[in-house]
Design goal:
Strand content: under 5%
Helix content: over 70%
Number of domains: 1
Order of helices and strands: HH
Oligomer: single chain
Largest sheet: none
């Protein structure tokens, strides 16, 4: 499974969601100017990244047959 290029793309998409989420949480926890300036943009990036990740996951399951 790890040698499948589509699986690698799915993992990278999920990792991108985690990175954006952690940056957003760090900004929220720290508050201040960074949070005021970037919080809405980071939320939009996270939603877009999650959408792409979910589409890739569903596509991966659909293309690979779903069940064995």
């Amino acid at each position: 499974m790890f040698d499948d290029p589509l699986f690698t793309i799915v993992l990278l998409a999920v990792l991108a969601v985690v990175v954006v989420l952690m940056i957003g949480l760090g900004g929220f926890a720290g508050g201040g100017a960074f949070n005021k300036k970037h919080s809405n943009r980071l939320m939009r990036y996270r939603i877009i990244a999650q959408f792409i990740a979910v589409v890739l996951i569903v596509g991966f399951v659909w293309l690979r047959g779903g069940t064995n």
